[in-house]
Amino acid sequence: MSFIDTITSGDYMPHGHCFLWREDLLLMHVGGDLATAAAYFAIPAALVKLVRQRTDLAFNWIFLMFALFIFLCGVTHVIDSINIWHGYYHIEGVAKVATAIVSLVTAVMAWRLLPTALAIPSHQDLLAKNQQLRAMQQELEAANRELESKVAARTEELRLLASRDDLTGLSNRRELIAVLDRELARAKRYGHALTVAMVDVDDFKLLNDRLGHQAGDQVLQAIARTFEAGCRTSDIVGRYGGEEFLVVMPETGSEAAALLANRLLDSLRQQAIAVNGDRIATTCSIGIASARQGELVEDLVDRADKAMYAAKDAGKDRTVVAD
Known about the structure:
It is a single chain. The chain is an alpha+beta fold. The protein folds into 2 domains: 117 residues, no CATH class; 149 residues, Reverse transcriptase/Diguanylate cyclase domain (Alpha-Beta Plaits). It is 65% helix and 11% strand. The strands form 2 sheets. The chain has a 5-stranded mixed sheet with strand order 2-3-1-6-7, sandwiched between helices. Helix 10 links the parallel strand 6 and strand 7. Helix 2 packs antiparallel against helix 3, helix 3 runs antiparallel to helix 4 and helix 8 packs across helix 9. The radius of gyration is 51 Å and the shape is rod-shaped.
């Protein structure tokens, strides 16, 4: 008889003779073996499905080894049930040997895996780490808010630097043109009055030549403070360039603008600017121009500028209204 024939031979005495072929014993043993085998076949199927769908698990191979071990256990229970009627003891022995080998390999692998498995953080460790991460996130959010606040403050500072004259602190020429452009568009849209005053310091070049540019800077700063104090909160005062200032007066006609300009001149006449221990009297010439319908910014400023030169020609220290 060949080896295969020996293995597959079922001519040995079946287990049923040991149970005296009693129905109660047969039912208990066959029912118990088949039910156990069904469970042993279902568990490996669940493990294989888990491994196939959860490819992110770190130890998939140990699940597969457990699945094979449990499956072979189920095979031995099925063969036990068959052996009640047929004596396939060689096949049962092969199945048990295979089960033993797989179980031993699985046990060795499980013990080798144990240190790594024990190193996996526990649920409490993960909760603690999450709390630390939340605390770090809150600190980061607070730092971001502080940084955003500093960036906003710095941006505003840079905006002011870009729109302010370094010497006087008033609006610079670029800011004045931007403001005048907005106010002219608003006056045109709503039909409101808008007037500008071009101011030039009289004999400023002679003052610079006689006392120096530092003294001239002090004079310009003093005039800027006088204009800021004398103008209304709705007016925009700026340094147009050199010794020239521009006052933008929204909602104001030429007559009211001339009255304001004359008050500014009176304030300058009544004060003497202290420069290097000397008291210097300073005057200005002012040209007034009110916006016309459809007029551009440069045209309005040009008319005020020409009115200012007319004030110079008329003897300085006075106000001239354009047209």
